[in-house]
Request: fold
Amino acid sequence: MAKNGLCRSRRAPMLNLYFLLALTLTAFANTDAAAKSQRKVYTSRADLPNLHVNALAQDSLGYIWVGTANGLCRDKGNAYDIFSSDKADSATIPSNNVTALLYRNGTLWIATARGLASKAAHSNAFVRYTIKSEKKHSEGYYCGFVLFNGSLYTFGYNGLYEIDAEHHQLIPKVNFDRRDVQAAAIAPDGHLWLASGDELLCLDNRLNVNRRVALPPGNAVSAMLTDGGFILLGSQRGILRFDPATSQITPMPGAEALANTPINTLLPLQHTDKLLIGTRGHGPQLFDKSNGRILSVTGKFNFTKIPSVDITAAFLDSESNLWFGTFDKGVFRIAARDDVFNSDHKMIDAFRGHFVTRIEGDKRGRFWIGTRYRGLAMYNPADTSLTYFSPAAYPWMNEFPTKFVQELFIDSQGRLWVGMDNGLFVPAQSENFPTHRQCGHHRRGCPKPGVGRLVRRGDKDFQSRPYGCITRSVTTLFPKQHNPPPAV
Reply:
């Protein structure tokens, strides 16, 4: 018997060992499960997980988000990050069927067929929302969002809900028993109008229903857009114009050509009188309200190139590019101007993660690329060939202690100047790369050797200016020869 009446068992150390072993195995199991879950709910691939696109949005970082019938996708230009649902993981989206997207004030809002979630701009984790009267996540079907009197609302199955972002709750405001709210818009007088089934409902500032307007038979509304003193209605039989002041609903003047055409989405083009209309069966249509004409081509927007007749979503990004989501062909972009960046995906992929320091284009259309750790490379867009110039292929490059390319410059004669850690070299060009080189080394005593930049001194004279000292003129680096190095 030990002091204080405590009995010390000889089995205690062994039990502690078993306990620690079990704890360690559990930790590894949890880590492995977490890793599997992460791989399951967050992946990257070249194509969309589903070609049925329901929604589009753009965040503050410029990424386009695509809501599909089988996952949420972030467009990276040449691939997609795909976020999937995991019922056991509350940090994922509630359902893979994403029905609506909205980006506002640094938050991406995701409506799905089984609930609502949000995501901060710099996080890959999602927050699910519960209905205030319930203690568990709500699996309601939500169709969209509307901003009314400074508050954000979502609508869908059973009615309208206010979003409480602080407490991650949905507060029921207008209840429609077993009915969907398909669309919403703010009238010129400030009232909120909802489309539900075969009628329109007007809500005052206190969200009380104070008026109901019956829709024409067979004209269920899927899109609403405030236009001057009217609200345009995208219905199953074309575009209707609703006057909130008189409660009259009439066909949209000039849009008779779209009569009996189901309308999925309405998008105004900024600073114009044109309205982009996404239809089912007739693809994208552009309606010019000033003359009542339906256009398929305007400026650089040629809608005949969209390979689907069923447009389910339309979006205008921050650079005025048009994005289309389709029912069966995925997502497409029509650029407002000629592409400048991200046009050569093979070159982008080849240098992803390679710490590119400098890029120069020569007269032959090739790109000379300097990197921090892999030296100098040349990419030829004509045949998509990529060549790295390493000491293995060119032993003389072993004279350089590192592969850090600090500067590239092509002069008026077309010669390539390469600044590296201990000076400069100017390759004499053959059809491929250096058959001769000369190196200039940094001045002794220089506190920070290395080529920082190249400075022109006249038409033919350059100097290397390292960080804090000046090397000798590099015009003396050229070998004395009758024929100068050919231009690159």
Notes: Residues 12-41 form the longest helix (30 residues). The two ends are 91 Å apart (CA to CA).
